[in-house]
UniProtKB/TrEMBL annotation:
Residue numbers spanned by region Disordered: 170-204
Gene3D superfamilies in UniProt: Ribonuclease Z/Hydroxyacylglutathione hydrolase-like (3.60.15.10)
GO-annotated molecular function: hydrolase activity; metal ion binding
Protein known as: Flavoprotein
Span of domain Metallo-beta-lactamase: 14-174
Record's keyword terms, sorted: Hydrolase, Metal-binding, Zinc
Pfam families membership: Lactamase_B
SMART domains membership: Lactamase_B
Length: 221
């Protein structure tokens, strides 16, 4: 399964949008970078689906452009005028060559989903490897209206409970991708920046949980 960060060269604020090539070619989030469609075209002529972690602007600004260009289905938790497939907690969705479980992970966004397979997690913004606030395990911001640190903490705990120990590849909505030191941990096939280090994905998420549980502001004034 090859994963390409199609927003890697963005000069404006965007999420990481991931093109997953394989048996079912899927874009995980659409991002906010002008030219996303052109980057996708460099790698594939067809796109089977767009799957959303959540619908914050930096994740969906280019969604209409992508859907207008490709005859792709849209799968998301929350309603959207162009949604074809509603996703609920526990649903499975094929991304690339693997089956992923959709895990509802609110706190940063009410409609947030993470996608987990036996080898890989697309964690969106619920938990990331690095984001300028923390390295080696950070969590989504919860200081905006409608967000909740308590919900986020419960979401991270649930994610840890449901994530197989075999997960070694982590693709988050912001920051670098991370590849752990377990079996296959150093062969992601991605063109984006990456972090390879001792430890594994579970270590990163447990560190993020510990930091979130302190209830301290993520971005102190």
């Amino acid at each position: 399964m090859q994963v390409v960060t199609v927003t890697a060269d963005a000069e404006t604020f965007t999420c990481n949008a991931y093109l997953v090539l394989g048996e079912r070619t899927v874009l995980v989030d659409a991002g906010a970078m002008d030219g996303v469609v052109d980057v996708i075209r460099e790698h594939t002529d067809t796109l089977d689906a767009v799957v959303l972690t959540h619908q914050h602007g930096d994740h969906v600004e280019q969604l209409d452009a992508v859907l207008d260009e490709f005859d792709a289905e849209l799968a998301a938790y929350a309603p959207h005028p162009r949604r074809d497939t509603p996703l609920s907690d526990g649903d499975t969705v094929r991304i690339g060559d693997e089956e992923f479980e959709a895990v509802h992970t609110p706190g940063h966004a009410d409609d947030h989903l993470a996608f987990v397979s036996d080898s890989t997690i697309f964690s969106g913004d619920v938990v990331v490897h690095d984001d300028g606030a923390f390295d080696d395990g950070s969590f989504g911001r919860t200081d905006m209206p409608g967000q909740s640190r308590e919900e986020l903490i419960e979401s991270i705990r649930d994610l840890l409970d449901r994530m197989p120990d075999s997960v070694e590849h982590m693709y988050a909505g912001h920051g670098d991708e991370f590849h752990g030191d377990g079996p296959g941990g150093h062969s992601p096939g991605s063109q984006s920046e990456r972090q390879d280090s001792s430890g594994d994905v579970r270590d990163v998420i447990e560190t993020a949980l510990e930091r979130a549980e302190k209830r301290e502001p993520k971005y102190p004034e």
